[in-house]
Each structure stands twice: as structure tokens, then as C-alpha cells.
Task: inverse folding
């Protein structure tokens, strides 16, 4: 067993895990944060996307040990003070989901992308979703939601704050 | 899918990593892990120990050094793709990095990890071969040695690295005003290349190297195409010789014969793009 200390959604969390523990299972099973989903299990689908030090990563393809000492943001950390993050509001407003399984990963990938490119074109949004699959094929409204959020999040960072 | 159990060691320096590799039989280096961990989850790889080198901070850089750009092995694909230095001085490297995997993969995967993995379907090996890049390898006994990209890739997943050696740096020549292209054909957005082609030209637009992804057990030169071009053939004619000397895989996505047809088309397009740049 090894000891890992990870800041998750702003809270310092610690756990003893096997070295082979994947970050997604630390989040889901040890810390009880089940908003992050596992789907393809082969690093393809992006359902497990979280932010590691603010950048999108696939938490099924990282060891918990690799996140030791770093900051992780999951879908549970997006809302602030009971208010949804602008991306969550945009997905709601634009019906950016069908079954909803890919949605947490889509939102986390989009949050990272909008931090790098706050004013994207539609083509850039589609490129940015290369690592996220929606098996309902609901891409049209997902792209629309992200473009909508880009309009509403301009001047703020990807977590909706101003810092 | 969970990897088989393994030991985990965190290296504080390259010297420490080399010592740890020497101490643990069948240990593997963990860089970004985006090639290794998927194989471990499928139990296709079962290392006894992972030596995590990602906390070694001085292995992530892109710097100018005379006629070369030097890239630290732990530089992430994302940072290679966004390096202004590479975009100006050796744009094919930045461009190829921007197309590896997807954004999440590029945020974690490293150039050294991808190169040392020596997957013939990987993009960067093909580009480094076309550029005549050199790879800097550190070991306990020999200190440092440099290996031309053409000698580094010895076979499927078989880099020129001893068990206790670490790839620490990639050195690429500045290509200046020379033309370039890296084109790959893949079925879905973040798939490996079915076929990829790298072309670099001299400043006069004459191609100096044409190399291929996933057409053998390692990145290879399209020797027939290079010979035809040297003899004055136009791109479309030269590209017809792209399958010569290749031994591509047949898999669920494409037969070897399909790849040998496809490579002619992609080679022609890559030549035309490089010669027009």
C-alpha cells in the first residue's frame, strides 16, 4: 500500500491505496465521488475526464500515485455556492445530453479547453472533443452548449471564478 | 480492468531512476504512462515495478542549441505542440505532436515516453526518422550516448535501450525554410494511424526524406520513393513506389494490402503538401 494526498475539488484528501489503483477508482470508490464515469476502459471515450492541475486528463489512464500532491477537479467541484457552473447551465439550456453518461467527461474536457481557448470556433470545439465519445451521438447540442458557455464564461476562468 | 499488482518507486533524479531500474528486475519506466498503462490494464504488460520519473522536473524543456532544437524527454505532447520555438524552427515536430491521441492524452503523454515505447504506429518516430534526429540515452556505466533515430527503432516495441538506460533528450535539426508534411490516415478521431507519412524538404523544396508510420515493425524510409525523387520523378509517380520494402500489419482495421494501396495516396498528398510549403 502507498499513501497519496490529493486536493480534490479544493479539499485535501488522503488515502492508502495499492500502487495499481487508478485515479478514477480512488475518486469513485475510496472518496465516493461517483460523478466521474468509467465506460470504455481503454483510454478512448473520455467519460472519466477530470482536471489535473486544471488540465483535462483521463482518470482511467492515470495511477492515483501520479496525482499525489496535485489538484484534481471533478464534476462535483464545478458548481459553486449551489449554483451550476456556466458549462453545466449551458448543457442544461441547450439540451447538451441525451442519456447523460458522457456528460461529466464532456463538461470537464470543455472546461479545460475553454481555459486554453476562451473564444473558440465551432471547428475548434469539435477538435477539442476528439477524446470524448457520445454513444447517443448527441454531438450537435454538446457543441452548441460549449459555444454558448464560451459566450457566457468570457473573462472568467474555467471554474467560473474570476481568479 | 485493473493492472496486475506491481511495485511503485518514485525517482528523484535520472541517476536515481537508473539505480532503481538496476535494482528491480523487469521494472519499467513510468513517464506519462499513456502507452504503458493501457497495456498493463489489458495485462499485455506485467512489469514487476514501475519507476515513476515524472517528478524529475528538469527533463521537461524545449531549447535552442546551435543548429538544433533539444527537447527534454518528459516534455508533454501538449507542450511540444505549443512550443513557439518548435513551431518556428522545426514545425513538423510541433504539428505531429498536436495530432497525437486527443487533448487529454496530450496533457499527460510525453515525447520521450512515446519514442521509447517504439510503437510502429506512433507518429513521432516517423517524424524523427525523417529529420535525422538524435536521441540522448543515459546509463549507469556509459554515462551518456547518442543514437541516430535510424538506429534507435530496432523492432516492434523494441527501442535501442538497455534495461537500465533512460532516454533523456531528443535533438532535432532546425529545418529553417524547408518544406514539411506529416499526414496520417485514421478511422476515428483519436485512433492510431493506419498509415502515416512524413516528408521533409530542403530549402529549395526538394524532398530530402520520406518516412512511413505503421508500414513495418518500426518507422522506415520509403526508400523507393526517395530514390525516384532523387532521379527526378514527380510526386505522383514517385509515390507509386511507396509500398516497396514495406511489411505492414493486417489487423481488424485494415489488411496489409489495403495499407500498401493507401500509402501511395497518402505519400502523394504529403509530397505535394511539403513541396508547396
Result:
Amino acid at each position: 500500500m502507498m499513501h497519496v494526498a490529493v486536493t480534490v475539488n479544493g479539499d485535501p484528501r488522503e488515502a492508502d491505496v495499492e500502487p495499481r489503483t487508478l485515479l478514477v477508482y480512488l475518486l469513485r470508490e475510496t472518496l465516493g465521488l461517483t460523478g466521474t464515469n468509467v465506460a470504455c476502459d481503454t483510454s478512448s471515450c473520455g467519460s472519466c475526464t477530470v482536471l489535473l492541475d486544471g488540465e483535462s486528463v483521463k482518470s482511467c489512464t492515470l495511477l492515483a500515485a501520479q496525482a499525489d500532491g496535485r489538484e484534481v477537479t471533478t464534476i462535483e467541484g464545478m458548481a459553486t455556492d449551489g449554483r451550476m457552473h456556466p458549462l453545466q447551465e449551458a448543457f442544461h439550456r441547450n439540451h447538451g445530453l441525451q442519456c447523460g453518461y458522457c456528460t461529466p467527461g464532456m463538461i470537464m474536457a470543455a472546461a479545460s479547453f475553454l481555459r486554453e481557448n476562451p473564444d473558440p470556433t465551432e471547428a475548434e470545439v469539435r477538435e477539442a472533443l476528439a477524446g470524448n465519445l457520445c454513444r447517443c451521438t448527441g454531438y450537435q447540442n454538446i457543441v452548441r452548449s460549449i459555444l454558448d458557455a464560451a459566450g457566457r464564461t468570457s473573462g472568467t476562468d474555467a471554474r467560473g471564478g474570476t481568479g | 480492468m485493473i493492472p496486475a499488482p506491481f511495485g511503485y518507486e518514485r525517482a528523484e533524479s535520472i541517476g536515481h531512476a537508473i539505480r532503481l531500474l538496476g535494482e528491480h528486475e523487469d521494472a519499467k519506466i513510468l513517464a506519462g504512462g499513456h502507452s504503458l498503462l493501457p497495456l498493463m490494464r489489458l495485462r499485455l504488460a506485467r512489469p514487476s515495478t514501475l519507476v515513476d520519473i515524472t517528478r524529475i522536473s528538469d527533463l521537461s524543456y524545449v531549447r535552442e542549441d546551435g543548429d538544433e532544437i533539444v527537447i527534454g524527454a518528459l516534455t508533454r505532447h501538449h507542450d511540444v505542440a505549443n512550443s513557439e520555438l518548435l513551431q518556428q524552427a522545426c514545425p513538423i515536430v510541433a504539428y505531429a505532436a498536436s495530432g497525437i491521441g486527443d487533448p487529454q492524452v496530450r496533457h499527460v503523454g510525453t515525447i520521450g515516453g512515446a519514442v521509447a515505447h517504439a510503437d510502429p504506429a506512433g507518429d513521432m518516430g516517423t517524424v524523427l526518422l525523417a529529420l535525422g534526429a538524435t536521441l540522448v540515452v543515459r546509463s549507469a556505466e556509459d554515462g551518456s550516448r547518442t543514437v541516430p533515430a535510424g538506429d534507435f527503432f530496432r523492432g516492434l516495441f523494441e527501442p535501442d535501450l538497455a534495461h537500465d538506460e533512460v532516454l533523456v533528450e531528443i535533438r532535432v535539426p532546425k529545418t529553417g525554410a524547408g518544406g514539411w508534411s506529416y499526414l496520417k490516415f485514421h478511422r476515428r478521431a483519436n485512433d492510431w494511424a493506419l498509415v502515416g507519412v512524413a516528408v521533409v524538404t530542403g530549402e529549395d523544396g526538394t524532398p530530402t526524406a520520406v518516412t512511413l508510420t505503421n508500414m513495418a515493425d518500426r518507422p522506415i524510409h520509403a526508400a523507393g520513393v526517395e530514390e525516384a525523387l532523387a532521379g527526378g520523378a514527380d510526386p505522383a509517380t514517385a509515390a507509386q513506389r511507396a509500398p516497396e520494402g514495406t511489411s505492414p500489419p493486417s489487423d481488424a482495421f485494415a489488411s496489409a494490402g489495403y495499407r500498401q494501396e493507401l500509402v501511395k495516396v497518402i505519400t502523394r498528398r504529403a509530397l505535394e503538401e511539403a513541396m508547396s510549403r
The first helix of chain B runs from residue 14 to 23.
